[in-house]
Design a protein that fits this description.
Elements (H helix, E strand, L loop, with lengths): L1 E12 L38 H13 L3 E2 L5 E5 L9 E5 L5 E10 L2 E14 L3 E5 L10 E5 L6 E7 L6 H17 L12 E11 L9 E6 L2 H20 L7 E3 L10 E4 L9 E2 L10 H9 L5 H8 L5 H9 L3 H8 L5 H15 L8 H9 L6 H9 L9 H4 L7 H14 L1 H8 L5 H12 L6 H13 L1
Parallel strand pairs: 11-12
Antiparallel strand pairs: 1-9, 1-10, 2-5, 3-4, 3-14, 5-6, 6-9, 7-8, 10-11, 12-13
Length: 467
């Protein structure tokens, strides 16, 4: 038997108004290379000036993760050459980071997992390489362009210990960490925009062994599901190598979700490869104790604690979905209006989450009224109402006045007319194409403005077509 050993390196772009060491705007979506200056483009003689807000936000996350906050932190130069790095070094932190030796407790259905936080430090992001390929990835690209707008963005890096032992636990940790970052207001952490991305380090060892074997790294992943898939694939690959008598090489791999293989990009670097040395143009950071205490007071109940609390009322699964989806505070407000906790959770996790709406914009009193009426109004009216709950003018009455009709004397003429107007589909249904029942039911619902009881419509359509 083999045991996976997984460590994570998570990068989070902070949503400060300006970049880390210059005053260029820190925003997403601008025209390529339109948000640059001599500092972030590394012109000779341009000197960095640190962003105070970014330092404070890094400390805030460190406190949320139970880290020790350094009395003295030092910026270092991390030296490497790559097209997205105009200075040929990155201003980062090395052996004296802002935050170190923390721990995040991750609730799971089977208990809690304590994940050590080795460090949480502040650095500047690189530029963005735009690969000219159908997939948008470097593998198979014919050319690479560089957009320097991202260069210099404040980047918070969180490094875990090798404390995770399954792809599912790693995914759960990442989701919990993302929600923590979002709730602290540090970042939108939008994976599709790259404002949160992660590297995954994977090795395997004989079950029960305490050794740490050679690890490989999957780089710059921006999907929880892809991370889990990549981990599972790499575990299987390494187990196969060891069981066939081979050895695993330490290297960085390219993960492509459409490809079963993860081809190597390069050999994996060690710290000495980067030739770290203190940044000569920046003084050490020495956060005042009163500032740290002030930031500590602003850290509220963390997502992991709320999952455990809500799981005492609902199932663990429901609590996990509500909290990691940012829905639990709205859930509490709706339940306070007298709605059954399980019903409120189902509506939020299924109907509301599908709209992509911001729960902070919802009036819980009006939403509760809509939920109360959902079994007496057409499904279409309820769905439309849920989609409109984020509107400032939302009123449940606008969607609950319509009542469902199951009166066959009203429905039969509509059904008869539709069957007569669609003889081909009627014959196909009689010939065995049962799926066409939905075609007729949908047409009846449309003709009645969603006021028909779909169960009754389905029964009447089947009876008429079968007869």
């Amino acid at each position: 038997m083999w045991e996976p050993v997984i460590g994570l390196e998570i990068h989070v772009q902070l949503k400060t108004r300006t970049k880390m060491f210059c005053r260029c705007p820190n925003s997403f979506g601008a025209e390529p290379n339109s948000q640059t200056c001599p500092v972030c483009l590394a012109f000779p003689g341009a000197l960095p000036v640190p962003n105070r807000v970014a330092i404070e936000e890094t400390i805030k996350l460190g406190l949320a993760l139970g880290c020790e906050i350094a009395e003295r932190a030092v910026f270092h130069r991390k030296n490497y050459f790559y097209p997205d790095n105009p200075k040929a070094y990155q201003i980062s932190q090395y052996d004296e980071p802002l935050c170190a030796r923390g721990r995040l407790v991750v609730p799971t259905p089977d208990g809690e997992i304590g994940v050590g936080i080795v460090r949480a430090h502040l650095e500047e992001d690189a530029a963005k390489n735009v690969h000219v390929a159908a997939s948008g990835r470097i593998h198979g690209a014919t050319a690479t362009l560089v957009d320097f707008n991202r260069c210099g963005t404040p980047l918070l890096e969180i490094v875990t210990g090798p404390d995770l032992h399954s792809a599912d636990d790693a995914k759960r940790f990442l989701q919990l960490l993302r929600q923590t970052v979002v709730e602290l207001g540090l970042s939108d952490a939008e994976l599709e925009k790259g404002s949160m991305r992660f590297d995954v380090n994977v090795s395997v060892r004989p079950a029960g062994s305490g050794e740490l074997r050679t690890r490989t790294e999957l780089k710059n992943m921006n999907s929880f599901n892809f991370a889990a898939k990549g981990i599972e694939r790499e575990i299987a690959r390494q187990v196969k190598i060891y069981e066939s008598g081979g050895t695993v090489d330490q290297e960085t791999l390219h993960f492509d979700p459409t490809n079963e293989d993860s081809p190597p990009l390069r050999s994996k670097e060690e710290a000495e490869d980067y030739r770290y040395f203190p940044e000569p143009d920046l003084v050490p950071v020495e956060p005042p104790r009163e500032l740290v205490d002030e930031l500590r007071a602003g850290v509220r109940e963390l997502p992991g604690d709320r999952i455990k609390r809500i799981a005492a009322t609902l199932s663990f699964y429901d609590a996990d979905v509500l909290v990691t989806g940012g829905l639990d505070r709205l859930w509490v407000a709706i339940v306070d209006q007298g709605i059954d906790p399980k019903e409120a959770a189902n509506v939020l996790a299924n109907d509301f989450a599908a709209t992509g709406g911001d729960p902070a914009r919802v009036n819980p009193v009006e939403f509760a009224k809509l939920i109360s009426a959902r079994r007496t109004i057409p499904r279409e009216a309820f769905t439309l109402g849920v989609a409109n709950t984020v509107s400032e003018s939302f009123a449940a009455d606008s969607f609950t006045r319509v009542t469902v009709t199951s009166d066959v004397s009203e429905l039969d003429p509509v059904i008869d007319a539709l069957i007569a107007a669609n003889p081909a589909q009627a014959e196909q249904f009689r010939g065995g194409k049962e799926g066409l029942l939905g075609f007729f039911v949908g047409r009846v619902m449309k003709e009645t403005g969603g006021k028909a009881d779909p169960r009754v419509v389905s029964e009447r359509v089947r009876e008429k077509l079968s007869g």
